[in-house]
Amino acid sequence: MAGKKQFDMDTALDAAMVQFWRAGYADTSVDDLSRATGLNRSSIYSSLGDKDTLFLRCLDRYAARYGEKYDAALAGAASDPLTAVRAFFDVTLDRIADPDLPDGCLIAQSAMAIPVLSTAVAAHAKEALGFQRVRLRAALKVGRLADRDADAFAEHAAAVNQSLAVMSRAGASRAQLLAVVGVTVDALAHALRAPGRA
């Protein structure tokens, strides 16, 4: 329509996602979102929703984008679970190393902010955090780890993955992050070599 400013929804959502990612939910105002997206407040509310709704959309967008990458990394777990788990961590390390993206992880950041989130948003953040455990457990099961070991390593690897994001935000070097990953991968290698694994 003539005279009406058009915008690209994907571009606006990405800009909002990066704003929440960089500053966190609590420290992002609607004015911040307006500056990030180039939309005025009324356009944000009419096109993207209120702050909670927009945050949920951004969280889902982030989880889908990186979830696809994690799933692709773990796809070879049946034939080579160790390489698959290394590839899983590489997704995180590559994201951390990308200079065009904020440090850390939007999901980890959201989980740490749960005390200040609304009940609905907090539940969504917990669910997004749980997806990593679920995908890791499934990969380790097809990699023929016993149920108990698959549960333990999925829990551990998901926790390590979130720790990488927190450490990167605190300024840890790539060498430090690789060392943390190395300990986890070595422990998994030991478990995979253990006699009697499923």
UniProtKB/TrEMBL annotation:
One Pfam family cited in the UniProt record for this chain: TetR_N
Gene3D superfamilies reported in the protein's UniProt record: Homeodomain-like, Tetracycline Repressor, domain 2
Keywords attached to this entry: DNA-binding, Transcription, Transcription regulation
Keyword Nucleotidyltransferase among UniProt keywords: no
Residue span, HTH tetR-type domain: 6-66
Presence of keyword Transcription regulation: yes
DNA-binding stretch(es), residue numbering of this chain: 29-48
Domain of life: Bacteria
Protein name per its UniProtKB record: TetR family transcriptional regulator
